[in-house]
Specification:
About 15% of the residues lie in helices and about 30% in strands. It is α/β, with parallel strands linked by helices. It starts with 6 loop residues before the first strand and ends with a strand.
């Protein structure tokens, strides 16, 4: 059985992987020993960790499941000049891109009681004066506030603070 190479040469970024059909994302180099979940938590954007060593002919995109990597080439097959994406150049995206869901909301969604579920925007301030906005799907404002406090206390949103000094809930 002939096995396909792990790195595929392409002239432009594919929309999806030709093997498994998953999305194609950037490979981020200079990540050290950071895991993909740590990267997602801190930077809130998709990417595959490329490590610290950049190969001579680096692939710059990868299938989101990791089965294939893609190297940019010119139409004649020669290596195209590329700029690899480095961790130090990646901008952090706001936490409001993630929509958190409370247990009560998940239960109502599971029983198809969508009229009881609402979107809330929660503005929090931690003891270190960190200000962040979260999107939370909950059954009411109190449920959304409880979820925000829990996320901060458990360290699930990547902030240094673990206590909410101020929590304001807004209906979206």
């Amino acid at each position: 059985m002939l096995e396909r190479p792990r790195i595929i040469d392409v002239t432009r970024k594919p929309a999806k992987c030709p093997v498994c059909g998953e999305r194609v994302v950037d490979i981020i180099y200079g990540t050290g020993d950071m895991t993909e979940s740590e990267f997602l938590l801190e930077y809130r954007c998709e990417g595959i960790m490329g490590g610290d060593n950049i190969p001579r002919r680096p692939p710059i995109w990868a299938c989101s499941c990791g089965c294939k990597r893609f190297r940019k080439v010119n139409p004649d097959g020669t290596d195209a000049p590329v700029k690899v994406k480095l961790l130090k150049d990646v901008r952090k995206k706001p936490l409001s891109l993630i929509c958190w869901t409370t247990e009560m909301a998940s239960t109502n969604i599971g029983f198809n009681r969508m009229m009881l579920v609402h979107q809330f925007e929660v503005a929090i301030v931690t003891e270190f004066d960190e200000k962040e906005k979260l999107r939370i799907t909950a059954v009411n404002g109190e449920d959304a506030e409880d979820e925000a406090r829990k996320l901060v206390a458990l360290g699930n949103i990547g902030l240094k603070g673990r206590q909410c000094i101020s929590v304001n809930v807004y209906d979206k």
